Amino acid sequence: MTWWQRLRCRQAAVWQERRTWRAELDRFKAARRSGTDPSAVEHPGPQPTGFSLLPWLLLGMGSFSNLIQGETPNPWIGGLGLLAFNSLYVHVTFRAFDRRRREATSTRVALGLLGLVTTGLALGYGGNWLMFFPLLGLATGAVLRGPWLGRVGLALTLYAGGVSWLRGGWDEASNIAYATFISSMVTAAILGLSEAVRELRAAREELARRAVEKERLRFSRDLHDLLGHTLSVIVVKSEAARRLAARDLDAALGQITDIESVGRQALTEIREAVTGYREGSLATELTRARSALSAASVQPVVRQSGAPLDPQSEALLGWVVREAVTNVVRHSRASRCEITVEGAAERVRLTVTDNGTGTDAAAGAREGVGGTGLKGLTERLAAAGGCLTAGPAPRGGFTVTADLPAGGDEPASAATAPRAIRQPS
């Protein structure tokens, strides 16, 4: 890419930033005209560019006047020096508003050349030409905003005072040194604060965007879990009703009644999920697990011991039961499933074990679904101080074990509960 193309790209980026700022300013004005609370609308502020530092070049009008009126010896040298100073000043200050370009070596070299030109003009002419030192301090403060600013600013102040003392005495030296120090420090403080405010605004917008994405993921995951489990139960009970219809009509009607009940409950759960108020219940999930396993011709064995659990632990374990049993029905080809809940004073453990083959689970894992759900559930339990283990059982089948502290530290609502997907045996 040639230098001309790079220049065009930089100009395009600057104009794009200005268009963005103008759009934000127009939205702010429109909100104010519509009567929106001023505290709820943030003014975008002026667009920071090198143009904001150009008016300070008026400090050099005295030297320019001396040059025009013929009061400067060797006017051609003075004119070239003035042109070189202004060119370097504009180059440095415009690069100071882009962090990558500001920290580039070329910018530091240009700042050093600006210091050499300032020194030459000050030593050669004195008087009004000493006012270039405060401009040098302003450019230095715009470029150096890090930990080196204090030392460099103090050194530049002493240097400007020393050169001014050689050309104009102590009074001139004190004024120039003071102006140089103030211009460098105040410029760095104002520009640094402006940049920090814009970075905070960008960070806030990024956090808002991530919050929206997180909420979308939460809702889609919760809805998927609800529908996945419910539809699995409906499919299993429909198959059972079809098998029973030919030989036992009453049993088939019972299964159909269960399908209607599950469908109504699913509608209620979806409404609760939409409004964000759904909470899991371990007792409810155990009851549903018995029904789903029985309909799938899997013998349910449920054992529960220990003290009653707190609502947070019940909600988390209820989701583990729901997803583990759903995957037993879908993938295990088991004939028996044991669900054990053991509550103690400090820990509570849930174990779901089947005696299936897990053949279909391998296909699900190859599709990339199982590992993601298991990882999400593991992270969720870990956030509550617990852990999740899943894998082949020693005597065959598959085992999912959830271990939690009694009285979790984090609310375990359905809004944030992830899915557990069966892994291959």
Which strand-content bin applies to the residues?
5-15%
The DSSP helix count reads: 12
- The residue-averaged pLDDT reads 78
Radius of gyration: 37 Å
Outline type: rod-shaped
Poorly predicted tracts of residues: 359-372, 409-425
Which sequence of strands runs across the widest sheet? 1-2-3-5-4
- Derived from helix and strand composition plus strand pairing, the structural class reads alpha+beta
Tell me about the largest β-sheet. Answer: 5 strands, mixed
Order of helices and strands: HHHHHHHHHEHEEHHEE
Distance between the termini: 57 Å
List how many beta strands DSSP finds.
Answer: 5
Assembly form of the protein:
single chain
Helix content percent band: 55-70%
What can be said about this structure in brief?
The chain is of the alpha+beta class and 425 residues long. The chain is built from twelve helices and five strands.
Folded structure, characterized:
A 5-stranded mixed β-sheet has the order 1-2-3-5-4. It has helices at residues 3-33, 61-68, 75-95, 99-102, 105-125, 132-143, 149-245, 249-275, 282-295, 311-332, 359-366, 370-383, and strands spanning 299-305, 336-343, 347-354, 387-392, 398-405. Residues 359-372 and 409-425 have low confidence and may be disordered. It is of the alpha+beta class. 66% of the residues lie in helices and 9% in strands.
How do the helices and strands line up, and which of them pair or pack?
Elements: H1 3-33, H2 61-68, H3 75-95, H4 99-102, H5 105-125, H6 132-143, H7 149-245, H8 249-275, H9 282-295, E1 299-305, H10 311-332, E2 336-343, E3 347-354, H11 359-366, H12 370-383, E4 387-392, E5 398-405
Helix pairs in contact: 3-5, 3-6, 5-6, 5-7, 6-7, 7-8, 7-10, 9-10
